[in-house]
Write a structure and sequence with these properties.
heterotrimer, A alpha+beta (about 350), B alpha/beta (about 675), C alpha/beta (about 280), A: about 350 residues, alpha+beta, 8-stranded mixed sheet, 13 helices, 12 strands, about 35% helix, C: about 280 residues, Elongation Factor Tu (Ef-tu), domain 3
C-alpha cells in the first residue's frame, strides 16, 4: 500500500486547490439532515461526518434526463451531439459508491463505449472516504464494496485523529499528491496500522442485513428460486422505481424525442425494469406482464453469477439505498433473504 | 446542481422531494430522507414529478375562443374578455348564475384569492371544488365534529400501531407513503386487517382480509359492533350518549346472518373482533374506497362509534385517519372553497367573523349558502374553473360535459388542455408547482411551502395572479403581490392557520395546524366535543338496494373501485410520463382501462385476459379490456372509478343528505366481443 | 469519440404497400462513404429514427447482394411507425446499424433448409431466403412455409408467387381464416409441416413469427427430430438502444440486441424467460 498523511489542517487547502481546476463534488448537508453529493463552492460545505448520501454518484455520470442528440428538421435534417467535458473530483465519497462506478464502467464501457458516460467518466477522479460507522441499512460487506476498499479508487482516505490517511490507488491519485506535495506528510507505521484496525472494527458494526447475497446468488444463478418467492415479492413491491433510481449501478434508460418548432432534442431518461411498460413492445405484447416476472428479471441482472461474470462483479454494492427507498418491502436484502429461505417474511 | 426542496404535487400525503435544475430546466427528482412523511421514499409519480412541469403539452399563452377556435391572446385581452363575459351574466342573471370551482391541486393562496374573488368580486356564494365529491363527507369519526379530519391523527401513528385496519383503502395505489408505513409496521409485527372487495396487495398480506361486497360497508361494521358489544363483552361505558340506540340498531347482526349480504365470513369477522380487543393501539385508515361508497356517511359514523366506544370503554386507543386524495384537498377545504363557509371554516352566519373578512377585503361578502359543485351543473349560466375538471371528477361525467357545453360562458385555468379547458371560452395558462411559491396542506394538516425552481413556460403565471388580474379587469383590484403576503392574510383571518410563519419549510414537513397559537380556533373548528356514538340507520344497513342485485339477465355485479388506478385519466398524471414519454407513470399496462374479472368469472362468461369484452347493464352497453385477476372476487367485476364514470353503465345513487352523486354497484352481463 | 447513438441520414427511395398495415420502405444512406461501409448480413437489424417521433428497431428485410439500398418492412403499430407510414419517397430518416448478430450461412451449407414464417415474421427471413436461393446449389433443398391470419395478411405477395413457381424451391402457404377466392391451405403454419419430407438429421429450420407461433412450431419441429441447434429463430424485443446499454431487451443473461436477435432453440431454452 502506498499511503501518505494529509494533516487535518491541510485538508481544506487541498480541497481549495482541487477546486481551481475541477468541479469538486463532495457530501454536503441539504435542507435539514439530507446529505447529497454536490458541487461545493467552499470546503466548509463538506459534511465529512455522514453515513449514506441520499443518492449515489450516478446522477453525475448518468443524469436522470439528458440530451443525447440535437437535430433540426428545417430543410435537410442535421444531427449533432454534445458532451459534458467538465473535470470533476469526487471528494469524500463512500466506498460503496465508488465501487458502483466500476459496475457502470463495465456496462457503459466494454466493446461499445457510451460516449456521454465516458466523456464524464474520463474526466472524473474519485477520492473515497472509508466508512467507520455503517448505518442500519448498510450491507456493503456482502457487496464486496466497503466499508474499506482494497482498490478501485484514485485515492482512499481514512479519517484518523491527526488527519486523513491517504491511500493511492491510481496514477491520477498519485498525481494529486505529487502536485500538492507540500501539503502531504509521510504516513507513520502506526497510522497505517490504525487504518487496518478501524477497517476490522467497522466490519463488526453491520446491522441485520448481512451476507444474504451469496446464498441468493447461487440459487438465482442455478434457477432454483421457489416461484412463490417472486409472487410474494410482487405483493411487496409498488413499482415506484425507487430501488433502481437510487441504486448506484442500475442504469437502464429510455429515449424520447422532443420538438420545439423545427428543432428537436433526443433525450434519454432513467427507466426502471419494474415498470409494467418497460419491456412492452410496440405491438402491445408484453413479455413480462406480471410484476413477479419483472422482479425476477431485475434480481437476475442484479445478483446472478451470469451477470456478475459479464460485469466483472455483482451489480449490488450493498449501499442499502433500496432498503431506504423501497415503498414496500421488496428491496435487495429482503428479496435475497426470501430467495435463500424460499419464502418472504 | 442545487437541490430545491419542495413537496410532491400528486396525492394527499405531501411527500418531501428535491428538484434538480440545470440550464433553467427541471432534470430530475430526489427523495428527502429527513422529511417526516416520505422518509427517503417516493412513489412512481413523485420520481417523475419533473415530467409534469417540463412537458411540451403545457399551456403557454392565454387562449380566447374566436369563431369557434381557441386563439392566442394577450393577458390584457384575455382578462378583458373574461371580465366582460362574467359581467354580462352578472347583469342579466345575477351572481347566483355564476359558479366558481377551486382546485385541490392549487395552493392555499390560489384558493384563498379565488374565494375572495367569488364571494367578494362576483358576490356569488357558488364556490366549491369538484374533488370534494371524492373526499370524505360526513363527520370525522374521532372528533365527532365537522368533516375536517382535524383530530390528532397523523401518519406517524402507524409507527406505533399494533393493529391497522384498512377500510376501503388501498394505499399502495392511492397513498403510497402511507402504504410504506403499513409495510414497515407489518414487518415489525403489527397486525393488518383489510376490508375491501378487491384483494389488493396489502389485503393479500393482511392477517385478515374481509372481501366486503360493495354497498354493504355499514352492515359488516354493524356486525363488528354487534360482536364487540354483545358477544365479546366489550366493556362499553354505559353512560355514553347514544349507546343504547346503537346497541339496539346492531342487535341481532350476528356475523353468520350478515355473511351472505356482505361476503364477509363470520369466522373472519370474529377474528377481527378478537384482534381489535387484544390490541393497544389501532389505526383505522379509510379513503375513497369508503368515502365514495353509496353508504359513506353512515359507514363513517359507524367507524366513529367504534372509535368512541374504545376511547370511553377501555378498549384500544384508536386513530381514524381519513386519507384525502389530492395534494391540497385539505387546504382547499381550509381555504373555504365550499358553498357553506369562509376561509378557516368560518360559518357564514357568524356575523362578527364575516365582518372581519369584509373589513379586510373592503367589500361585502356573499353570505348565502351556495351550490355544491355537482349542483352548479345545469343551474348556473357561467363558470370560472381553476385547476379542476368536472368531466373527470364527477360520477356522471357525461352529464357534466353536457352541462359545461350548455354554459353561456366558461373560463378554465389549468396547466394543460384538459377536457374541460377544451370546451372553454377562455383558457388561462397557469404556472405549475415548481414554477411558483405558495403552500399546500397535506392530509394530516401539514402546511408546507412549495418553491419556485424554474420559470413558467411562455406567459403562464400563478393562479392567484390570474384571478387578481381578472378581478382588476372587473374594476375590483385585489391588492396581492406575493404568496407570502396572501399567506399572512390567511394566517390573520383564518385562525386555524394562526402562528404559522411563511414559508413553512417543506424539508421539515412544514407545520401542522393548529399550532399552539391557533389551537383554540382549531379545536373549535374540529369540534373537540364529547365522544358519542350513533345508531346505525336501518336504511344504510340494507345497502344499495334492489337495483344492485344480480339476476338471471345480469348475473354479475359491476363495482366502480375508486382505489383501483385512482390516477387514470387525471390530467397531471396523464402528462407525467415514463418510458420514452409513451406511457403515463400509472396505468401503463392497460392504457385504455380494464375490467377486472376473477378467473372463474372469466371462464364462466367466456372472456379472455387482454381482450375486449362486451359489458351490458340496465343502463347501457360498453366494451372494456379484460384483466383476469385473483384480485377481483368471484361474482364481482371491478373497474377503476374513473373509467366507470365514463362507461355509461353505472347506476348513480344520490346521497340523501348532500345530494352527492355516487356510482352504485350495478348488475351486468359480460360476454366476448363478437 | 465514436458515437453509436448518432444516426446516419438516409432517404426513402421507394414505398411499397404490402398489406393494409404493412409497408416496405426502400432506404438509401445519403452519404456515399457511409453507404460503402454499411455491410450487413441477413438477421441483422437497424434502429430507425423518425426525427421527432423517436427511434425503433427493424430487421433488414432485403439481401445485401447487388444493392446499395435496403428494405425495411414495417407494420404500423406505434408512434414511430405511424409517422413513418405517412412519409413518402424523399423523406429523410436516421439509421443506426447494422446491429446484432446474423443467421448462420456458411455453417448451414449442404443442409436441407426449412423456413417457417408466420405473419410479419417473414420480414427477417426474406434476406436469408434470397441469399440461400442465390446459392441454391450449395444447399440440399430449400422449403418455405408461410402462414398468415387471412389472405389479406400475406406479405410479399409477388415474391411468394415467384417462390412458389421457382425451381429448386418449395413454397407452401396457409391462412388461419380463408376468404373468398382463397383456394389454398387453411390452418396454422404448423399444419404445413407434415407436407415436408426432408432428412431432418441434415436440416436446419429458420423460424420467425409471433411468440405463440414460435412456441408451437418449435414443439412440432422437435417432434419431427430437429435438434435444438438446428432450430434458429430471431427474437423480437423492445430494443431501445441496440447496443446493450439500455437493457430493455434483456432476457436472462442475454441482450437480444447484442447477443441476438438470432438464437438457436438451445440458446432460447437456456434463457430463463422462454418458458413463460
Amino acid at each position: 500500500m502506498t499511503a501518505r498523511m494529509l494533516p487535518g489542517n491541510k485538508i481544506d487547502e487541498f480541497a481549495v486547490r482541487l477546486m481551481r481546476s475541477a468541479e469538486v463534488v463532495a457530501p454536503r448537508r441539504v435542507g435539514e439532515e439530507d446529505v447529497f453529493y454536490g458541487a461545493i463552492a467552499s470546503p466548509d460545505e463538506i459534511a465529512w461526518d455522514y453515513g449514506t448520501a441520499v443518492e449515489p454518484l450516478k446522477r453525475f455520470l448518468l443524469p436522470q434526463r439528458e440530451p443525447i442528440l440535437r437535430f433540426s428538421t428545417n430543410g435537410r435534417i442535421r444531427v449533432g451531439a454534445e458532451y459534458d467535458e467538465q473535470q470533476r473530483v469526487f471528494l469524500g465519497v463512500r466506498c460503496c459508491d465508488v465501487t458502483g462506478v466500476a459496475v457502470l464502467d463495465a456496462m457503459y464501457g466494454g466493446d461499445t463505449v457510451d460516449p456521454y458516460y465516458m466523456s464524464r467518466r474520463e474526466r472524473s477522479t474519485f477520492i473515497a472516504l472509508t466508512c467507520q460507522q455503517p448505518e442500519p441499512h448498510c450491507f456493503c460487506v456482502c457487496g464486496d464494496a466497503g466499508p474499506f476498499l482494497e482498490g478501485g479508487y484514485d485515492q482512499q482516505w481514512t479519517a484518523l485523529p491527526e488527519g486523513m490517511l491517504v491511500e493511492i490507488g491510481s496514477a491520477a491519485g498519485e498525481a494529486l499528491v505529487r502536485d500538492n506535495e507540500d501539503l502531504f506528510a509521510e504516513a507513520e507505521v502506526d497510522q497505517v496500522a490504525a487504518r487496518y484496525r478501524l477497517a476490522r472494527e467497522a466490519e463488526q458494526k453491520f446491522g441485520e442485513f448481512k451476507s444474504y447475497i451469496a446464498g441468493a446468488m447461487r440459487k438465482l444463478s442455478m434457477n432454483e428460486v421457489a416461484p412463490a418467492v417472486w409472487e410474494q415479492a410482487a405483493d411487496r413491491c409498488m413499482e415506484c422505481g425507487g430501488c433502481t433510481y437510487l441504486c448506484p449501478t442500475c442504469s437502464c434508460f429510455t429515449v424520447t424525442d422532443r420538438m420545439a418548432g423545427q428543432d428537436g432534442v433526443r433525450e434519454r431518461h432513467w427507466d426502471a425494469c419494474l415498470y409494467s411498460c418497460y419491456a412492452r413492445e410496440a405491438s402491445g405484447h408484453n413479455p413480462r406482464p406480471e410484476r413477479e416476472d419483472r422482479l425476477r428479471a431485475r434480481f437476475f441482472h442484479k445478483i446472478s453469477h451470469q451477470w456478475a461474470v459479464r460485469n466483472g462483479r455483482q451489480a449490488c454494492v450493498g449501499c442499502g439505498r433500496c432498503v431506504l427507498g423501497c415503498m414496500g418491502w421488496a428491496h435487495t436484502p429482503a428479496v435475497s433473504e426470501g430467495i435463500r429461505r424460499g419464502v418472504m417474511t | 446542481m442545487p437541490e430545491i426542496a419542495t413537496v410532491c404535487p400528486y396525492c394527499g400525503c405531501g411527500c418531501g422531494l428535491y428538484l434538480h435544475v440545470r440550464d433553467g430546466r427541471l432534470i430530475g427528482v430526489s427523495p428527502s430522507r429527513s422529511h417526516p412523511v416520505s422518509q427517503g421514499r417516493l412513489c412512481v409519480k413523485g420520481w417523475h414529478a419533473h415530467e409534469v412541469v417540463d412537458n411540451p403539452n403545457r399551456l403557454t399563452h392565454p387562449l380566447v375562443r374566436r369563431e369557434g377556435n381557441l386563439v392566442v391572446a394577450s393577458w390584457e385581452e384575455a382578462a378583458e374578455v373574461v371580465a366582460n363575459g362574467l359581467s354580462k351574466v352578472l347583469e342579466s342573471e345575477g351572481p347566483q348564475a355564476i359558479g366558481v370551482l377551486g382546485s385541490a391541486r392549487c395552493t392555499n393562496e390560489d384558493n384563498y384569492v379565488l374565494v375572495r374573488f367569488a364571494r367578494g368580486t362576483l358576490r356569488t356564494p357558488n364556490i366549491d371544488c369538484s374533488a370534494r365529491v371524492q373526499c370524505v363527507p360526513g363527520p370525522a369519526p374521532t372528533s365527532g365534529g365537522p368533516s375536517l379530519g382535524a383530530g390528532a391523527e397523523e401518519i406517524a401513528d402507524l409507527d406505533s400501531a399494533d393493529l391497522i385496519l384498512l377500510v376501503g383503502s388501498d394505499p399502495t395505489e392511492e397513498h403510497p407513503a402511507v402504504a410504506a408505513r403499513v409495510y414497515r409496521a407489518r414487518q415489525r409485527g403489527a397486525r393488518v386487517v383489510a376490508a375491501a372487495a378487491r384483494a389488493h396487495p396489502l389485503a393479500r398480506l393482511a392477517d385478515v382480509h374481509l372481501p366486503v361486497r360493495p354497498g354493504s360497508e355499514v352492515r359488516w361494521l354493524g356486525s363488528l359492533l354487534h360482536l364487540l358489544l354483545a358477544e365479546q363483552g366489550f366493556a362499553a361505558d354505559a353512560d355514553m350518549p347514544g349507546l343504547s340506540e346503537l346497541r339496539a340498531s346492531v342487535a341481532g347482526l350476528r356475523p353468520e346472518d350478515t355473511e351472505a349480504a356482505t361476503n364477509v365470513p363470520a369466522e373472519a369477522l370474529r377474528e377481527v373482533a378478537r384482534l381489535y380487543l387484544s390490541s393497544k393501539q389501532v389505526v383505522i385508515l379509510y379513503s375513497t374506497g369508503l368515502a365514495l361508497s353509496t353508504v359513506a356517511g353512515p359507514a363513517l359514523q359507524a367507524l366513529g362509534s367504534l372509535a368512541a366506544l374504545s376511547s370511553r370503554g377501555g378498549g384500544p386507543e384508536v386513530s381514524v385517519l381519513g386519507l384525502l386524495s389530492r395534494n391540497n384537498l385539505q387546504g382547499c377545504r381550509d381555504m373555504g372553497v365550499a358553498p357553506d363557509s369562509l376561509p378557516g371554516y368560518v360559518p357564514l352566519n357568524d356575523d362578527a367573523a364575516v365582518a372581519r373578512f369584509e373589513q379586510a377585503w373592503k367589500c361585502e361578502v356573499a353570505r348565502e349558502k351556495g351550490l355544491r359543485a355537482w349542483e352548479m351543473l345545469g343551474r348556473v349560466r357561467a363558470m370560472y374553473v381553476v385547476g379542476d375538471d368536472v368531466t373527470r371528477s364527477l360520477p356522471d361525467a357525461d352529464a357534466a360535459r353536457r352541462a359545461l357545453e350548455a354554459l353561456d360562458f366558461l373560463v378554465v385555468q389549468d396547466i394543460f388542455m384538459s377536457p374541460a379547458a377544451s370546451m372553454a371560452d377562455v383558457v388561462l395558462p397557469a404556472a405549475a408547482f415548481a414554477e411558483r411559491e405558495g403552500t399546500w396542506t397535506n392530509l394530516e394538516r401539514r402546511v408546507q411551502g412549495i418553491r419556485k425552481a424554474v420559470a413558467p413556460p411562455g406567459e403562464a403565471r400563478e393562479d392567484w395572479r390570474i384571478v387578481a388580474d381578472v378581478s382588476r379587469a372587473m374594476g375590483k383590484p385585489l391588492p396581492y403581490e406575493s404568496a407570502k403576503q396572501i399567506f399572512e392574510e390567511i394566517a390573520d383571518l383564518a385562525s386555524i392557520y394562526a402562528g404559522i410563519a411563511y414559508p413553512p419549510a417543506a424539508v421539515n414537513g412544514g407545520i401542522r395546524w393548529p399550532t399552539p397559537e391557533g389551537r383554540k380556533a382549531g379545536e373549535t373548528v374540529a369540534g373537540s366535543g364529547e365522544a358519542e356514538v350513533t345508531a346505525l340507520s336501518a336504511e344504510a344497513l340494507k345497502g344499495p338496494g334492489a337495483r344492485a342485485e344480480t339476476n338471471e339477465e345480469y348475473p354479475l355485479l359491476l363495482a366502480a373501485d375508486p382505489t383501483l388506478r385512482p390516477w387514470d385519466g387525471e390530467v397531471t398524471v396523464c402528462h407525467t410520463l415514463t418510458s420514452a414519454g409513451e406511457f403515463a407513470v400509472v396505468a401503463r399496462d392497460y392504457p385504455d382501462g380494464m375490467l377486472c374479472l376473477n378467473p372463474e368469472d372469466a371462464k364462466r362468461f367466456g372472456v379472455r385476459g387482454g381482450r375486449p369484452a362486451r359489458v351490458v347493464s340496465p343502463k347501457g352497453e360498453s366494451q372494456m379490456q379484460v384483466r383476469v385477476t385473483e384480485e377481483a372476487p368471484e361474482g364481482i367485476a371491478l373497474v377503476p372509478y374513473n373509467q366507470a364514470m365514463h362507461s355509461g353503465l353505472m347506476e348513480i345513487s344520490t346521497d340523501p343528505e348532500t345530494g352527492r352523486p355516487v356510482l352504485a354497484p350495478t348488475p351486468i352481463l359480460v360476454g366476448p366481443v363478437q | 469519440m465514436n458515437n453509436p447513438y448518432l444516426p446516419k441520414l438516409a432517404t426513402i427511395q421507394k414505398v411499397k404497400v404490402e398489406t393494409y398495415d404493412t409497408t416496405t420502405f426502400t432506404l438509401r444512406l445519403d452519404d456515399s462513404g457511409e453507404r460503402k461501409a454499411f455491410e450487413y448480413r441477413p438477421g441483422q437489424f437497424v434502429e430507425l429514427s423518425v426525427f421527432g417521433a423517436g427511434e425503433a428497431p427493424f430487421c433488414i428485410s432485403s439481401s445485401a447482394h447487388g444493392r446499395d439500398d435496403f428494405d425495411l418492412s414495417v407494420r404500423k403499430v406505434g408512434r414511430v411507425t405511424g409517422v413513418l407510414h405517412e412519409m413518402g419517397e424523399g423523406g429523410q430518416v436516421g439509421i443506426r446499424g447494422p446491429l446484432g448478430n446474423c443467421f448462420p450461412f456458411e455453417e448451414v451449407k449442404g443442409k436441407h433448409i426449412l423456413f417457417v414464417g408466420g405473419g410479419i415474421g417473414l420480414f427477417p427471413l426474406r434476406p436469408q431466403i434470397q441469399d440461400v436461393y442465390r446459392e441454391r446449389a450449395q444447399f440440399a433443398s430449400v422449403t418455405v412455409l408461410y402462414g398468415a391470419r387471412t389472405p389479406e395478411d400475406l406479405v410479399y405477395q409477388d415474391e411468394l408467387e415467384q417462390w412458389q413457381q421457382q425451381e429448386g424451391m418449395t413454397c407452401l402457404l396457409t391462412v388461419d381464416t380463408a376468404a373468398d377466392g382463397w383456394s389454398g391451405n387453411v390452418g396454422v403454419v404448423g399444419s404445413l409441416l407434415p407436407k415436408v419430407s426432408i432428412d431432418v438429421s441434415n436440416a436446419v429450420a429458420f423460424v420467425c413469427g409471433p411468440p405463440i407461433m414460435i412456441r408451437f412450431v418449435v414443439q412440432d419441429l422437435s417432434g419431427m427430430g430437429f435438434g435444438d441447434d438446428a432450430i434458429i429463430t430471431t427474437l423480437e424485443r423492445h430494443m431501445r438502444c441496440g447496443i446493450g446499454k439500455c437493457n430493455h431487451c434483456m432476457i436472462g443473461d442475454k441482450w437480444v440486441c447484442k447477443d441476438g436477435p438470432v438464437f438457436s432453440y438451445r440458446e432460447m431454452r437456456a434463457m430463463a424467460e422462454f418458458e413463460e
